[in-house]
Amino acid sequence: MAVFGIRTRFDENDTSIKRLELFPSGLSMEVNDYVATDAISISRRTNLQIYIVKVLSLLAEEAGINDQNLNLRVFTIANDVLDVEKFLAESLQRNPTSNVPRTTTLQDISAQFSFNFSQLIAHELGDENVISILTPIYLLNTMYFTDAFEYLTNDNDPVFARKIHNYLRWRLVSTYIEDLSYNYVHAHRLYLNAYYGYALHTTNEAYCTREVVRRFPLAIQRLYIMNSTRYSNTATTIQTIFDSLKNGFKEYINQNAKWIVDDDTKNIAREKIDKLTVAIGYTAIASDDTLLDNYYQNFTVNDNSHLENAIYYHRFHRWSLSNSIRNPNMLDHWDYFETRTSRLFEYIPIFNRLFIITSGMNEPLVNSEWPWPVNIGSIGVLLAQKLFASIDGPEGK
Q1: What are the C-alpha distances in Å from 301 to residues 125, 257, 289, 387?
Q2: Do the Cβ atoms of 33 and 90 come closer than 8 Å?
Q3: Can you give the pTM of this predicted structure?
Q4: Which of 84, 195, 207, 58 is nearest to 150 (CA)?
Q5: Distance between CA atoms of 130 and 327, rounded to whole angstroms?
Q6: Residue 10: strand, helix, or coil
């Protein structure tokens, strides 16, 4: 999966189904960093080359390789990687990725791109039987996949074949860089600091915290729910505010919405408001220790072996992909909410539901002990804006 990634997404027409989705993913930096000529982009390309050289030098040192041509070979690999990634970036610049997928099958894209996608997907899923070669899947950015596979399979020229080989090896190493020994992790930190122009991780503790959050998001959300909501009836307060706004909104449509000129449109708006639901807090799994234990039971953690834990995490990720397809509503659609820009509350039209995450249920937005007008004047105003968007605006119409 050097040039593309695998994930799941809800079916465009049926929210009870999740589809496998293949999307462009083959770059170490942003597209503009490869094609722009400004000082920042040039510096970032230089820093990426330095980073690749450092990692490859560490690999050579561990392998006991120290001949006179080592530096030349290492820089050759780094330049090869940059050449291939620049080509992929130029393809994405010509063909930007939209959020509108193409529906296809593993059988069709295997024939189109002369690559055995079925065999790869069977390896990447914990249960290969959740889809077949004829199951509809989603493909994002067909033109990128066309360019990438034409480029990567054109290996008749020995020099070109070397570049592809070096690029694929680098993608393998870079994918698992966080799971290697400390020297590699440290090299990656230094690269990120150089890329962004400031230190992202000031301590090992901060780095470890980020990794725990990345690998155990539901468990972290469980801790947050247990310890962040100051008063136990905050969720009840939010629900009461939502119900009040919903009823008031419907009354407004019935009596004061002069801008809705025809009865058919008003009826559609009323029906949509009636069916509007709210999700408060987070998915049920993050509020139930038994459900959480069941979810993570396939993720084994070894106290003594970092490498084993990396392997276990990969296996768990494979299981989670399969499980997402088999049980599309297991996370109560909160996984879809997390793909949105807003992280506090958002109206999702595909579900006709307003999501309000736990982290949005604290002061200064809401406090269950405040007088009613204060809560209405704070989080109530913000939620009212989202409710209005459910019938007005690009996503509500």
Answers
A1: 20, 58, 18, 43
A2: no
A3: 0.83
A4: 84
A5: 10
A6: strand
pLDDT tens string 83-106: 999 999 999 999 999 989 999 999
Q: Which residue in 180, 187, 183, 189 sits closest to 210, CA to CA?
A: 189
- Which residues, in sequence order, are CB contacts of 222 under 8 Å at separation 6+? 286, 287, 289, 292
pLDDT of residue 230: 57
393 pLDDT exceeds 60? no
For the chain, give every domain's residue range: 4-200, 231-283+331-397
**In this predicted structure, what is the pLDDT of residue 101?**
94
Tokens of 286: 């993050």
Q: How many CB atoms lie within 10 A of CB 253?
A: 18
Cβ atoms < 10 Å from Cβ of 397:
11
CB 152 within 8 A of CB 190: no
> What CATH class is the domain 231-283+331-397?
alpha beta
Do 26 and 16 meet the contact criterion of CB atoms below 8 Å apart?
A: no
What are the Cα distances from residue 21, in Å, to 8, 309, 314, 328? 5, 26, 18, 14
Measured from the Cβ of residue 331, the count of other Cβ atoms closer than 10 Å reads 19
Is pLDDT of 397 > 60?
no
By CB neighbour count within 10 A (0-12 exposed, 13-18 middle, 19+ buried), where does 24 fall? buried
Q: Are 131 and 2 a contacting pair, CB within 8 Å? A: no
Using alpha carbons, list the distances in angstroms from residue 308 to 180, 314, 315. 11, 10, 11
Single-letter amino acid code for the residue at 54: K
Measured in whole angstroms, how far is the alpha carbon of residue 309 from the centre of its chain? Answer: 22
202-241 per-position pLDDT tens digit: 677 777 787 788 888 888 888 887 776 555 688 889 999 9
Beta carbons of 232 and 278 less than 8 angstroms apart: no
**Distance between CA atoms of residues 178 and 188, nearest Å:** 8
Determine which of 8-17, 223-232, 272-281, 293-302 has the lowest per-residue pLDDT on average: 223-232
Q: Domain 4-200 is in which class? A: mainly alpha
* DSSP label of 376: I
pLDDT tens-digit map of 14-69: 989 999 999 999 999 999 999 999 999 999 999 999 999 999 999 999 999 988 89
